[in-house]
């Protein structure tokens, strides 16, 4: 029987404990469950495995490109500085916790489907890369708090499953306001920022007209390319910090900052600045490699999850990535991005002058990618309830959240809090921080507190679904009454099943739906 033990040890130690192989096996199992041909199953498994290896390769590049920047920020400001980039911190964390992340993601997705089937929260979260990001965050927080591997997977899986069905419900009144119907939900862990933007729009919008009546310059549309936006933002940050660093420490010290990669350092000021430019571009390439790896994995894994979800939860509302709302208000996307970035800069100043000296919070530098995606979506949500003012001020508040919350989150990430990057979107910040502080109560007490936190989130989502979403409450109805000519073209029916148009005020419940106005 020794050979059976040897085979079992080989499977556990050499295959199931290797994240790349585990992801491939999960993909193969999902495709097999959908009765795909053998060739497609094998190809999907291999592509998912290669995608995971790409993530690891990109993570090594990210670490190398961020090391000089961290040294410059520390030397120039005396404080720890980070650039929130989900892909980067996930890639770094995979090296230590890859297997636990994979198992936690499986448990969380399965529980999410079960909750969607058994509760009123019939949302199926299909944004695979955000599932991976949240699974990684929960693994890092729970593992660094000292929980054993089984507890990390079990408790983290429960918390992930709850979030997958709860957060789309909290945002759904505002999402229906944008889409005009109940066909899709938002499945993205920037939900706190989107709800905040929609609420701010309600407060400040009143008679403000829609962003879609504005004409924006074509020259800014290149920022919609994520790789270009990442490289540009890092290039600017690197050059600015390089200039500040050389002014504060002198050329002799500053020129050696790039010698850590095996080079001899800079030879003159021009070489020093151009090495800073190259490091910024290298970061853009690093994130592009990680993104390609994530897309390669999810291109095979998500279809399997989708097929399974259709069988388990028929008639469910798909919860999709943040860019799903971009086509509804394209000008609001750009307004939201710029306003969110401005909010990040203002909060960075607050961190540098007040919160870092008083509480030791790290300096969170605004990156273009999180501000573009979450800020752009926040602009759409703010515009839906408050027009131009809602888009600008709502997205500004989102920028404040995704700068302040990551600084708090770093306090519970253990050794990962010393990395030069972290998780960027709002829900990672508030939920990760709460889970992390609860985990500090010890193994037994921490598990109880975390499960109570999950139960509170789930109960709140059920209340919102039953008392707000299903009755058809519209968060922008008051503004529509004040500004009939700027009312959105579509508004959700009370039953959420279709759009209706109106001239001045929403028709009362039960009134017949008027025909749409003639098109020009």
Automatic annotation (TrEMBL):
Pfam families: EIIC-GAT
Extent of Pro residues compositional bias: 505-520
GO process annotations (BP): phosphoenolpyruvate-dependent sugar phosphotransferase system
PANTHER family: ASCORBATE-SPECIFIC PTS SYSTEM EIIC COMPONENT
Subunit and partners: Homodimer.
Segments of this protein annotated with the region Disordered: 475-520
Membrane-traversing stretches: 15-34, 46-67, 101-119, 131-164, 184-205, 226-247, 332-355, 361-384, 391-410, 430-463
Bias-annotated ranges (Basic and acidic residues): 491-500
Family (UniProt): Belongs to the UlaA family.
Protein known as: Ascorbate-specific PTS system EIIC component
Function: The phosphoenolpyruvate-dependent sugar phosphotransferase system (sugar PTS), a major carbohydrate active transport system, catalyzes the phosphorylation of incoming sugar substrates concomitantly with their translocation across the cell membrane. The enzyme II UlaABC PTS system is involved in ascorbate transport.
Subcellular location: Cell membrane
Any one GO CC term of the record: plasma membrane
Keyword Membrane: yes
Membrane topology: Multi-pass membrane protein
Domain of life (superkingdom): Bacteria
Key words of the record: Cell membrane, Membrane, Phosphotransferase system, Sugar transport, Transmembrane, Transmembrane helix, Transport
């Amino acid at each position: 029987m020794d050979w059976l033990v040897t085979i079992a040890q080989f499977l556990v130690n050499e295959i199931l404990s290797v994240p790349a192989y585990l992801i491939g096996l999960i993909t193969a199992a999902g495709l097999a469950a959908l009765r795909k041909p053998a060739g497609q199953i094998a190809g999907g498994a291999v592509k998912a495995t290669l995608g995971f290896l790409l993530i690891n390769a990109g993570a090594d590049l990210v670490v190398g490109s961020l090391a000089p920047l961290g040294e410059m920020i520390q030397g120039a400001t005396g404080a720890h500085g980070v650039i929130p980039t989900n892909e980067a911190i996930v890639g770094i964390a995979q090296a230590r916790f890859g297997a636990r992340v994979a198992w936690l993601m499986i448990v969380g997705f399965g529980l999410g489907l079960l909750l969607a089937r058994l509760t009123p929260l019939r949302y199926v979260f299909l944004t695979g890369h955000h599932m991976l990001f949240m699974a990684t965050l929960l693994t890092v927080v729970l593992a660094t708090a000292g929980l054993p591997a089984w507890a990390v997977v079990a408790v983290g899986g429960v918390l992930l499953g709850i979030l997958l069905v709860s957060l789309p419900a909290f945002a759904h009144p505002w999402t229906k306001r944008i889409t005009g119907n109940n066909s899709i939900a938002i499945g993205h862990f920037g939900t706190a920022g989107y709800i905040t933007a929609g609420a701010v729009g309600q407060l400040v919008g009143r008679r403000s007209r829609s962003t879609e009546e504005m004409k924006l310059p074509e020259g800014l549309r290149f920022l919609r390319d994520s790789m270009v936006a990442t490289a540009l933002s890092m290039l600017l940050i690197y050059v600015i910090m390089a200039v500040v660093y050389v002014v504060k420490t002198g050329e002799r010290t500053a020129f050696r900052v790039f010698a850590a990669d095996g080079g001899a350092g800079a030879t003159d000021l021009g070489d020093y600045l151009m090495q800073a430019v190259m490091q910024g571009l290298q970061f853009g390439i690093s994130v592009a490699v990680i993104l390609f790896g994530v897309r390669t994995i999810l291109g095979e894994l998500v279809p399997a999850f989708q097929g399974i979800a259709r069988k388990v939860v028929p008639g469910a509302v798909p919860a999709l990535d943040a860019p799903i709302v971009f086509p509804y208000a394209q000008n609001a996307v750009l307004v939201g991005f710029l306003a969110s970035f401005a909010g990040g800069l203002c909060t960075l100043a607050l961190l540098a002058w007040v919160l870092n000296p008083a509480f030791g919070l790290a300096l969170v530098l605004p990156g273009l990618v999180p501000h573009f995606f979450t800020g752009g979506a926040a602009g759409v949500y703010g515009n839906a309830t408050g027009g131009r003012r809602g888009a600008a001020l709502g997205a500004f508040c989102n920028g404040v959240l995704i700068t302040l919350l990551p600084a708090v989150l770093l306090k519970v990430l253990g050794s990962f809090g010393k990395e030069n990057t972290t998780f960027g979107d709002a829900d990672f910040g508030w939920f990760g921080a709460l889970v992390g502080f609860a985990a500090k109560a010890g193994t037994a007490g921490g598990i109880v507190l975390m499960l109570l936190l999950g139960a509170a989130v789930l109960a709140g989502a059920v209340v919102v679904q039953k008392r707000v979403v299903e009755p058809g409450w519209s968060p922008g109805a008051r503004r529509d009454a004040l500004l009939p000519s700027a009312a959105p073209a579509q508004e959700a029916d009370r039953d959420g099943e279709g759009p209706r148009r109106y001239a001045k005020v929403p028709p009362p419940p039960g009134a017949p739906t008027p025909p749409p106005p003639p098109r020009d």
